[in-house]
Amino acid sequence: MKLLEGKVVIITGASRGIGKGIAEVFAQHGANIAFTYSSSAESALALENQLNATGIKAKGYQSDASDFNQAQAFVDAVLAEFGTVDVLINNAGITKDNLLMRMSEEDFDKVIEVNLKSVFNMTKAIQKTMLKNRAGSIINMSSVVGVKGNAGQTNYAASKAGVIGFTKSVALELGSRNIRCNAIAPGFIETEMTAKLNEDVVQGWRDSIPLKRGGTTEDVANACLFFASDMSAYVTGQVLNVDGGMLT
Ligand code: NAP
Hints:
By secondary structure, this protein is an alpha/beta fold. The chain has a single domain (8-241), classed as NAD(P)-binding Rossmann-like Domain (Rossmann fold), CATH 3.40.50.720. Helices cover 48% and strands 15% of the residues. It has helices at residues 17-28, 41-52, 68-82, 105-133, 144-148, 154-174, 192-195, 199-207, 217-228; strands at 8-11, 32-37, 58-62, 87-90, 136-141, 179-186, 239-242. A 7-stranded parallel β-sheet has the order 3-2-1-4-5-6-7, with helices on both faces. Helix 3 (68-82) packs parallel to helix 4 and helix 4 (105-133) runs parallel beside helix 6. The chain is globular, with a radius of gyration of 17 Å. The site of NADP nicotinamide-adenine-dinucleotide phosphate (NAP) has 28 residues, from helix 1 and strand 2.
């Protein structure tokens, strides 16, 4: 059964990793997809072609989600091209890890701008369309680190905890208009990036997780599919940990 047939979905940061995994699963479910990237033009074009080949409509846009005006211009372009937007997935994110002692002001600000302000920018830009439609699902990518904290990631943890507060507030503000807003808190998700890490270290992480494996991008995409579709029609303001039981 296709759960998103004909729906228009925006995914920020889908040129690789989790965003790409979401785009692939959503295309299988019949969604039309507008996605952004920061600088990976080649991977973005490859994904655009890959998705279009499945019979849905897909387009990649270079757009910095942390820039208020660029986010607005991107949403305007998507509305012109796709007509409407049903689902927004705020997935773009970065890390700039360091102990607080060594963390620069610049690295703190940058992570907050890309991970948290971007969610404000994109939600502001999409709000009018969803209000008009009296329908919409907004999904924000947090992290277990935003729930629990993590040494060496004060900037990242603060940004991801902020995403949770923002999510719950939007759910309260827009619930009466049938606009839902939920967050996903992934644990350790194995991507191209983690494949480059030392195998012994990665195995140690896997062993410490109750389900004894890292998550896949598909695991996160399936949780997004639930929040994007009518399967979660009565669910809003929630944070779903997709972490193999890590925080249990
Ligand atoms: P990733 O592989 O590093 O991919 C990040 C994506 O975001 C890329 O497509 C990148 O584009 C894009 N991006 C970066 N800055 C951007 C900006 N300013 N504007 C628009 N797009 C931007 O990351 P990931 O591991 O898939 O993570 C995706 C999300 O899940 C992030 O929010 C992350 O914090 C969260 N998360 C990940 C994990 C994990 O284990 N991987 C765990 C918990 C939470 P370019 O390719 O052009 O740079």
